[in-house]
Every structure is written in C-alpha cells, then in structure tokens.
Inverse folding.
C-alpha cells in the first residue's frame, strides 16, 4: 500500500475510532468496564499506527481482534473489508461485506454503503456482471447514485459498450452537475471508429455528428471525419477536416500530417500543403512539420534546399529526429570516408531514439511509442500527449 493510500485510509478510520470509542463506552455502562474501553481505543490507534507504517499484516490482525469485540460494529467491519481490498485480498473483502449484508439489523443507509463496497470488491475481482447489478440497483434506489454511476461508466468502458457508457455518463452529469461532454464525445468517437472499420459510412458520420454535438471542438471527431472523407475520395472535405485538428489543438498535428499530406498530393494541392506546413511550423515547436517540409522541399526543389532548410531549423530547435533526417539527405550523394562517417552517425542517432517514449500521459506519466486516446495506465481520456524535447517531438 502506498503512503497516499495509507493516509487516505487513515482519514477513513479516524472518525471510526472516535465512533467506536463512543459506541463501546455507551455499551460499557451496561456490560463492560472502563479498562476494556481503554483497551479498545488503544488497540484501534495501534492499528492505525501499523497502517501508517505500512505494516499491513499487523494492522489487519489488530482490526480483526477489534471486530471480535463486538460483531455488531458495522464500521469496524467496513474498515476491515476496505483493508483487505486495498492489499489485494479481494476474496476476504467479499466475505466480510457479504456477511454484513446478511445482517437483518442493518439500516438502509448502512446497507447502501455495504452494497457499494461489495460492488467495488467485485470490480477489483473482475466480476463485472455482479458489480454492474449492484451499482444498477443503487442507482435505481437513488442511493449513492453519483459513485455508483461513476463505477458503471468505468464498467461499460471496459466492456466497450459505448451506448451504455454514453447513457450513464449523461445520468452522471445530471446527478452531479459536472460536465461530461468531453467524455461523451470520446464514446461517440469510439462508435464512429467502429463503424468506419466496417465501412459503414452513414453510421460513422452520425456518430461523428453526435461527438461534435457533445463537444464542438472535438479533435478526435475532426480526425475521424478526415479519415472518412478521404476514404470516400472527398479530398477537399478531408483536407478541411484535418486542418481543423490543428485549429482545435496543435499538439495533435503529428497524428494528421501523414494522411493530410496524402490528401494534398492526391488533390494536387501541394502549394496549399506548403502554406499549411509553414504556418504550423510558426505555431508548433515540434519537429514533425519540419520533417514534412524537408521532404516536400527535397521532392519539389531538390536536396540542396532540403539540407539548407534542415540545417537552419536544427540551429533554432535542436532535434535528434531532424538530425537523422539531415544525415539521410546527405547520404544520397556521399561517398567513401564521408559516407562511412555519416552511416556511423546515423546508426548512433537511431540507437538514441530506440526505446524512447514518444508520448506521455499528463495525468499519470505513462510513456508510449504510439498515441492512445485513452491512457492504458490511468484510463483517462485525451491525456496522452507528444513528448517535446531533443529526443522527442
């Protein structure tokens, strides 16, 4: 358990310590001595101390003994189940919470809390169908609905049931008042991509429209629209869609340059391609538009122009990828020892780039070589961005 997890659980358990002390003291007037109350309080704080020092086994041992003091103390069992789940002993957590649910003396409020905990146990165990049933029941009861809805949205994302994810994200927005437009737009984009893969262009366009309705400046929707238009040979429309990606968020330029340049070439609009790349090069500090311009100049104006451009850009924005491109251009006409030296330099730069993450999640720091709309680590959407720097973008 991390220090942050331990602190979070500490704040959960401290009120329980006070509550348990009051509870046992009240019952103590009927059947216990003051010494027993003192022992309970001491043991409780001893358990918290073990927890803070990440001595989980000792903490659980203490809380198990505390639960034996009075089997009717719901709060102690909830804390114990939470401990089991946090340390990965999900089966034990499930048994604790199932035993609590079986108690006829539980109040409705206590029952809803235990159901929520049990649902989280099921999620951790991968029993998503059981978790879905519990959370759906809680929503129907209007009990802890925001938390239950949040879990349901997570379940439907995992199951890739995007229609249900959209429906429950909207319910979550209504329940909390917190905007879910960006999330809903991503779910519509997932549906658009699925339809595009089936070449169901009508359904894909409908999902794209829904994404724009949720989030008018949705970068991903513009990108998918560009793919759909290009696949249907509507090149001007595809170019417009791809260029809007740069207007919405310039960080996504590397993702659309290749298909956009292909559309420029097929539409025989290379002048517009150069104008776009030059404009982006002024706004965007990454190396992708530099490399694209160098290739364009090599093809349209000759390698000398490409070399001059790359050399000037390298002085302004040092980049290993741009250096590698410059070496490649020079290799075409190099001979003898010069060529051998360039090949060594090229091999060194290639090795420097090997294994380097190109993208990083701004939420959790996850690094990746390819772009992901949803971070594989923390599951947040739209947080994976290009890494800028000498060996990055």
């Amino acid at each position: 358990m991390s220090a942050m997890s331990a602190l979070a659980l500490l704040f959960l358990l401290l009120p329980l310590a006070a509550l348990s002390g009051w509870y046992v003291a009240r019952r103590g007037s009927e059947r216990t001595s003051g010494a027993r109350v003192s022992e309970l309080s001491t043991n409780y704080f001893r358990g918290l101390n073990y927890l803070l020092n990440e001595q989980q086994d000792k903490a659980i041992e203490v809380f198990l003994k505390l639960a034996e003091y009075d089997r009717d103390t719901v709060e102690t069992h909830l804390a114990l189940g939470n401990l089991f789940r946090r340390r990965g002993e999900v089966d034990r957590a499930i048994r604790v919470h199932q035993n609590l649910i079986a108690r006829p003396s539980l109040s409705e409020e206590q029952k809803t809390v235990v159901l929520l905990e049990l649902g989280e146990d099921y999620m951790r165990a991968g029993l998503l169908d059981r978790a879905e049933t519990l959370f759906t029941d809680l929503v129907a009861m209007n009990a802890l609905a925001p938390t239950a809805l949040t879990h349901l949205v997570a379940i439907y994302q995992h199951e890739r049931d995007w229609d249900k994810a959209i429906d429950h994200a909207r319910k979550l927005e209504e329940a909390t008042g917190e905007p879910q437009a960006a999330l809903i737009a991503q779910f519509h984009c997932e549906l658009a991509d699925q339809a595009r893969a089936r070449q169901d262009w009508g359904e894909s366009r409908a999902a794209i429209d829904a994404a724009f309705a949720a989030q008018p400046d949705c970068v991903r929707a513009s990108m998918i629209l560009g793919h759909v238009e290009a696949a249907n040979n509507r090149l001007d429309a595809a170019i417009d869609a791809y260029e809007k990606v740069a207007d919405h968020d310039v960080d996504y330029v590397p993702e659309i340059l290749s298909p956009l340049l292909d559309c420029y070439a097929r539409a025989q609009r290379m002048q517009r391609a150069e104008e776009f790349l030059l404009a982006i090069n002024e706004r965007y500090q990454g190396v992708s538009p530099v490399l694209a311009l160098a290739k364009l100049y090599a093809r349209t104006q000759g390698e000398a122009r490409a070399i001059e451009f790359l050399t000037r850009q390298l002085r302004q924005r040092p980049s290993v990828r741009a250096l590698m491109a410059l070496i490649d251009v020079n290799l075409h006409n190099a001979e003898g020892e010069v060529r051998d030296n360039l090949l060594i330099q090229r091999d060194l730069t290639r090795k420097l780039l090997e294994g380097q993450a190109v993208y990083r999640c701004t939420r959790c720091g996850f690094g990746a070589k390819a772009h992901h709309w949803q971070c594989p680590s923390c599951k947040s959407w739209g947080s994976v961005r290009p890494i800028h720097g000498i060996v990055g973008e």
User: Anything to note?
Assistant: The radius of gyration is 30 Å. Residues 3-40 have pLDDT under 50 and may be disordered. The chain has 19 helices and three strands.
